[in-house]
Design a protein that fits this description.
201 residues; mainly alpha; two-stranded antiparallel ribbon; two-stranded parallel ribbon; 4 strands; globular; Actin; ATPase_NBD; Actin-related protein 4
């Protein structure tokens, strides 16, 4: 594969007798490119969205195509914190990261809300975006009740942070009391959320 100049078409040669590609493999490879692009190019503005003074980032796609990205680096990720910037989003009830944290905690018992605000854990691939943690730490304290103290935890290891939810589920499943605490689909269909209060008081 030969690299080409920016905005120029790729130089390539079609391979004959290529075995058929399954849809799942195609989707897997596309998702891999998207993940690599996200990690290499995108970042979250540490303050309110500001396109100024942002250096361009070069990215070479698998077919050799090179492209320079400027304001898109921030614009694409801004929707995580401000959904109103997402064109075509019709759901006015969509919440940004900070609002989602506050909404989730507000639905919990008032007696544990203070502990939850002091135990916010960043997990998942998007939290690895450059500037994500700084933006959350800057914005969330301005919106939460004044008597609450925010403390954010984040694993430094990217693999651990990306799979934290899985690790937590695996640890929970290994507990001796798992069978008594787990809820089957049939139970949830019959009782709804009440079975959560019964099994996990």
């Amino acid at each position: 594969m030969e690299s080409v100049r920016e905005e120029e078409p790729a130089i390539w040669q079609s391979t004959e007798r290529v075995p058929p590609v399954t849809r799942s493999w195609h989707n897997y490879m596309c998702n891999g490119v998207i993940s690599d692009f996200k990690a290499s190019v995108l970042r979250v503005s540490s303050t309110l969205y500001n396109e100024k003074h942002l250096p361009d980032a070069q990215y070479e796609f698998p077919n050799g195509y090179n492209c320079s990205f400027g304001t898109e680096r921030l614009r694409i990720t801004e929707g995580l914190f401000d959904p109103s910037t997402v064109k075509g989003l019709t759901d006015k009830a969509a919440h940004g990261v900070c609002e989602t944290v506050m909404k989730s905690i507000s639905l919990c018992d008032p007696g544990i809300r203070k502990a939850l605000y002091s135990s916010v854990v960043l997990t998942g691939g998007n939290t690895l975006l450059e500037g994500y943690r700084d933006r959350l730490i800057r914005e969330l304290p301005q919106k939460i009740p004044q008597d609450m103290k925010l403390k954010v935890f984040a694993k430094q290891n990217p693999v651990e942070r990306r799979a934290n939810a899985w690790f937590g589920g695996a640890t929970f499943a290994a507990l001796g009391a798992f069978q008594q605490m787990c809820i089957s689909k049939q139970e949830y269909d019959e009782e709804g959320s009440q079975c959560l209060e019964r099994k996990c008081p």
